[in-house]
Input
Amino acid sequence: MKVLVTGGAGYIGSHTSLCLLEQGHEVVVFDNLLNSSEESLKRVEELTHRPVQFIKGDLLDASALERIFAENAFEAVIHFAGLKAVGDSVEEPLWYYRNNVVGTLNLLDCMAKAGVKKLVFSSSATVYGASELVPLVEQSPVRAVNPYGRTKEQIEDILSDLVAADTDWSVAILRYFNPVGAHESGRIGEDPRGVPNNLLPFVAQVAAGRRDKVRVFGNDYGTPDGTGVRDYIHVMDLAAGHIAALKFIQSHLGAYCWNLGTGRGSSVLEVIAAFSASAGRDIPYEFAPRRKGDAAISYADASAALADLGWTAHRDLAQMCEDHWRWQSANPLGYQPMPDLTDGDDHQ
Ligand code: NAD
Ligand code: WQD
Output
């Protein structure tokens, strides 16, 4: 299949592109590189020995998108492109709604015009808001508590209205829980810009000595050790979930929604301990007040994905930390090249 991967240079997109290439699919990545680097795709090519066609462009540029659909016969689209920082979305809601919702509308328009009606969409467990009725099932109430989450909720609604209006569409909505880890080679991984918002990349940077200590947001939750519990899922398991969903929509019309998680929760302290064991070093931390908007506990019921797609996550927390650490320690500055510290005089 020839697959358009929007946002394919990013964290989850690059790992999924790698899996698509390994399955023999042709991959065209469309990304504006706002939160990523083309280097990720060069490494995907290096790992798979297969080419990736990269087109630098923005979803808000409808004419660029139209051209791409005119020039390529895509069979399906995997749509990762979007902004994902909760805090930024609270400060700049219009930017988030425009980028995520209007960007998706542009994409859907082009797909409809080109007759490409198979889509896998990156949604998020964030649509469940602060609901603590765990495990979360796909039918749990959707009530996002921040603008980022509401962009996902709105796109999900748009997709279900679209499928109701035109039954030729096949749409898979994937609600990811907490993606972490990296490809086992340590060549591709998550490369956050600035101070990481998420726990794993922050812990990894503390382990690497780039930051002093982890601030554990709240130790008075009603969880076994008082810290927040989440369903961390290895990014390679997540990538495999996309391949399974893509295969499913080849032969099923309509809109489908699946949780992609492990079905197991880990606390912040368990994550720190697991990472410390993988990195073989102490990870200093201190307790800090709860972070606004955080749920105490969130984990998936992922049985629908198993029943419908035959997909389940295989990698445990130790493997997630080990792979994340391999990537972090081999690439302390992410995809940025290491500064050349050699003195020019040495070369005379
Ligand atoms: P990422 O930032 O690494 O990747 C997103 C990519 O989209 C980036 O490469 C960025 O440059 C690109 N992009 C953003 N806006 C664009 C636009 N207008 N036009 C073209 N390209 C654009 O993020 P990720 O972690 O790989 O997430 C991928 C998707 O999964 C996102 O939609 C995100 O909301 C969703 N998601 C992520 C998580 C997570 O914790 N990482 C959890 C649930 C859902
Ligand atoms: C995990 C746990 C924190 C950082 C976010 C988004 C969600 C989705 C996934 C995109 C919580 C605690 C964190 C730190 C800490 N993204 N923590 N110290 O909040 O579950 O989900 O990423 O869709 O939309 O909201 O993930 O990694 O930020 O936090 O104690 O420095 O770690 O309080 O309990 P979260 P996270």
Q: What stands out?
A: The longest strand covers residues 118-124. Residues 7, 9-13, 31-36, 58-60, 80-84, 99, 103, 122, 124, 176, 179 surround nicotinamide-adenine-dinucleotide (ligand 1) (CB under 6 Å).
